[in-house]
């Protein structure tokens, strides 16, 4: 492997502007991580217009910083207030808050910060080694391979999304449908444009993401009762002790690996890997009854894993152009705004961007470690900002921001429409994630499918004659067919023996 | 929270909104008053680009904007309104005030190829615009991956199977050039449209399609590196950047297809404004930095005046309409 571009990447990161934006990114990430409600996908979506005027590499360094920064921040409120700032820190509540009640809040936060740092760093190193390997196959990825990848991506995201598989599939189908709006690039025919010039080129990704994630989430959160948060003023001794580190070291190691692997898979990402890491530690432990009562592994494992996953989920995006989760879909949009199309060519065509972003994560993680340990008290104070102040400001920024991307009032209307849709979806238990992801992948799927069929002369069996697309489609079929088959089998077993069946499901939940 | 604090925030918000709207009005007032003064006055000039940032059209617009801004002494900004091969930007330009403060870099393919591919009335008509000046031409080159073994048009004809060819999109010069070549050479071939030059290039490099027609500036690096074999160019005469590759005309096929670009203004822009703009662009064309830019991007200058350009493009449209009827080529699906 040629390390020259990797080293050049450090040169890019160390430019003062990039360092500054890296710092801005991780600080914003920490802040929104602490604040319950606004997640990284929403924040990045809202900030998309800001990135318009800056260099691509700088923009993505900042947005990436928000994403992994949020994983650090989410821990703080989980531990101190039993209030997870991010979905990926939900399991941290069990043992983290128990530790806080025992007066060991400092240790919990400290070990989470150290674990996050190690998990993140291990993942960056692995990313550095794996990404160029994947990119080596770049030219073998033709239309059939992209068709299979897009199909697999949409399916995986729908199957693991929160809020039920059927609802996720419905949301994904709506996303695919929205992607068909606009001029058909193969025939020039206009579809669903209603003779509206603004629709002629299809719906833009930015207003959809800003509406569904940004505005929708703000509206939804407004409904929650605003309890007055009693933030603890001081947290004593955040440096984890030698004993803490020794006890947690195994959990951190396993969390790093697990998080890295689950992060790569489409639909994986931070939330799933933190749940899986917690479950793994609990199952491995000699005395699992300690979990939920302040076991340090119960904090270290999920916090390490969510950071490792946050980093590794950049792999499918930067090497294949396939976003693995909703946040990555938004970063995908940010790259497109900058005129950079992520894909197998990225490593060789834009080495500065690729390695600049990857290497900025080292710096970002160091900054976060510094902020998490001595400055933790400062971030806790953020919780005193009321939603009544925050929400109107955010809405204003969103609406002004989306206008600046294309200077088009139509986009403001779109944000409001999709904001309302996002709110209704959340209220009725639909996760907007699959919709956005399917929308992003929809045109890739359609164009690649039609291109493939042109190349194959209309013969669909061609997909299975190529090694990469064939393998991907077999995986697709397995993922699609396995759950219904398993459910059917379980159903049959459940008739004679209902006890085992219910036992199985509970085990799967944690 | 005390009521006082709420009020303070509300006031601040209202103040902010007020400041914004004032700023917006200020801009309009400035534009209004400058109309009476000599062009360009003090208000800025916007150049619309119907393509994404970073593409060749965008780069050309930015290279020119920098020079013209220095000459006229007002800011000249490039605004990307990508979509429908520039038709979106063209429709927007048509609706702008004809005062010379909104211009557009108009692609020749939109004027003389797109109308042949889409339903009547969907492509803008260049008769509805004023033309400030021509800019430059970009040549298309037919390339293949070395491992395909194809070196000449004859090799393609002897392949004994259907050839797949990548195009940079429906209604582009890339598509037209290849459709014409294969029809005249009697080669059985099928078009696979991609989304722009770079994806087409990747598909040819990876052997996903047999050949592809790409703008010279986009393919030259790979040709020099030996990763792509040039078969023919679609220029009228061999471009100086690729002296050893025959043109399609030399190979016996009458298919000169070039991308051409020009500066357009809304219909009814006063003649003295057009003249002032043209003079300024002429100065820009002479600048060393701009000439080096042309060389770096393999662009052939075509700095003719508006009338000459209109003749070129209208001629192209008629000629292409004739040949595609003769060979019954169907560029688009929707008619």
Automatic annotation (TrEMBL), chain B:
Residues 1-26 form the signal peptide. Pfam families: TctC. Keywords: Signal. Gene3D superfamilies: Bordetella uptake gene, domain 1, Periplasmic binding protein-like II. SUPFAM superfamilies: Periplasmic binding protein-like II. Belongs to the UPF0065 (bug) family. This is ABC transporter substrate-binding protein.
């Amino acid at each position: 492997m040629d390390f020259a571009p990797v080293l050049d990447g450090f040169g890019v990161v160390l430019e003062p502007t990039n360092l500054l934006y890296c710092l801005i990114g991780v600080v914003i990430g920490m802040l929104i991580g602490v604040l319950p409600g606004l997640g990284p996908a929403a924040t990045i979506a809202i900030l998309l217009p800001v990135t318009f005027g800056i260099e691509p590499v700088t923009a993505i360094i900042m947005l990436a910083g928000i994403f992994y920064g949020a994983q650090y921040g989410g821990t703080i409120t989980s531990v101190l207030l039993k209030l997870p700032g991010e979905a990926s820190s939900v399991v941290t509540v069990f043992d983290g808050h128990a530790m806080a009640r025992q007066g060991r809040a400092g240790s919990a936060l400290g070990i989470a910060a150290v674990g996050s740092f190690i998990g993140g760093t291990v993942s960056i190193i692995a990313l550095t080694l794996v990404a160029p390997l994947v990119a080596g196959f770049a030219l073998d990825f033709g239309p059939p391979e992209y068709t299979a990848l897009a199909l697999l991506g949409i399916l995986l995201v729908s199957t693991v999304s929160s809020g039920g598989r059927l609802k996720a599939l419905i949301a994904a189908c709506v996303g695919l449908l929205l992607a068909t709006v606009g001029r058909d690039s193969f025939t020039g025919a206009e579809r669903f444009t209603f003779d509206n010039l603004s629709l002629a080129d299809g719906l833009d990704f930015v207003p959809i993401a800003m509406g569904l994630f940004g505005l929708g989430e703000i509206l939804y959160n407004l409904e929650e009762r605003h309890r007055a948060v009693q933030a603890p003023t001081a947290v004593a001794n955040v440096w984890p002790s030698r004993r803490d580190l020794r006890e947690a070291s195994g959990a951190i190691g396993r969390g790093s690996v697990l998080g890295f692997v689950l992060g790569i898979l489409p639909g994986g990402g931070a939330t799933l890997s933190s749940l899986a890491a917690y479950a793994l530690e609990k199952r491995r432990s000699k005395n699992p009854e300690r979990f939920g009562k302040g076991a340090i592994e119960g904090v270290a494992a999920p916090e390490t894993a969510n950071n490792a996953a946050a980093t590794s989920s950049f792999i499918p995006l930067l090497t294949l152009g396939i976003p693995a989760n909703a946040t990555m879909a938004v970063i995908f949009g940010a790259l497109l705004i900058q005129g950079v199309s992520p894909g197998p060519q990225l490593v060789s065509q834009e080495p500065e961007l690729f390695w600049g972003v990857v290497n900025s994560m080292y710096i970002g993680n160091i900054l976060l470690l510094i902020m998490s340990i001595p400055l933790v008290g400062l971030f806790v104070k953020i919780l005193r900002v009321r939603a009544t102040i925050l929400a109107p400001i955010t809405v204003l920024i969103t609406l002004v921001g989306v206008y600046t991307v294309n200077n088009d009032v139509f986009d403001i209307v779109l944000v409001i429409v999709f904001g309302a849709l996002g709110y209704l979806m959340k209220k009725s238990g639909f996760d907007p994630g699959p919709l956005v992801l399917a929308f992003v992948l929809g045109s890739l799927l359609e164009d690649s499918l039609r291109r493939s069929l042109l190349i194959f002369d209309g013969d669909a069996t061609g997909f299975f004659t190529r090694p990469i697309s064939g393998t991907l489609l077999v995986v697709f079929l397995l993922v699609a067919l396995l759950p219904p088959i398993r459910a059917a089998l379980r159903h049959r077993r459940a008739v004679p023996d209902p006890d085992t069946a219910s036992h199985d499901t509970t085990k799967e939940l944690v | 929270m005390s009521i006082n604090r709420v009020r303070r925030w509300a006031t601040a918000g209202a103040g902010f909104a007020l400041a914004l709207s004032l700023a917006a009005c200020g801009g309009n007032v400035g534009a209004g008053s400058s109309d009476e003064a000599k062009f360009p006055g003090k208000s800025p000039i916007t150049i619309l680009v119907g393509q994404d940032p970073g593409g060749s059209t965008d780069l050309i617009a930015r290279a020119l904007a920098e020079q013209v801004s220095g000459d006229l002494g007002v800011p000249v900004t490039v605004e990307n309104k990508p979509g429908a091969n520039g038709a979106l930007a063209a429709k927007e330009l048509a609706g702008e005030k004809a005062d010379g403060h909104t211009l557009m870099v108009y692609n020749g393919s939109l004027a003389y190829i797109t109308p042949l591919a889409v339903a009547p009335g969907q492509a803008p008509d260049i008769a509805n615009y004023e033309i400030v000046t021509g800019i430059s031409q970009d040549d298309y080159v037919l390339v293949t991956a070395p491992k395909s073994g194809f070196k000449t048009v004859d090799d393609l004809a002897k392949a004994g199977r259907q050839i797949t060819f990548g195009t940079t999109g429906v209604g582009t010069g890339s598509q037209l050039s290849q459709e014409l070549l294969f029809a005249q050479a009697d080669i059985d071939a099928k078009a696979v449209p991609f989304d722009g030059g770079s994806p087409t290039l990747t598909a040819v490099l990876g052997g996903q399609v047999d050949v592809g027609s790409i703008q010279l500036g986009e393919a030259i690096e790979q040709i020099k590196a030996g990763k792509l074999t040039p078969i023919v160019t679609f220029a009228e005469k061999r471009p100086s950047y690729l002296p050893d590759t025959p043109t399609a005309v030399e190979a016996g096929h009458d298919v000169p297809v070039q991308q051409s670009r020009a500066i357009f203004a809304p219909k009814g822009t006063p003649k003295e404004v057009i003249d002032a703009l043209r003079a300024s662009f002429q100065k820009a064309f002479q600048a060393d930095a701009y000439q080096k830019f042309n060389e770096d991007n393999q662009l052939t200058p075509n700095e003719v005046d508006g009338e000459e350009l209109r003749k070129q493009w209208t001629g192209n449209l008629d000629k292409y309409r004739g040949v595609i009827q003769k060979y019954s080529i169907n560029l688009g699906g929707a008619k």
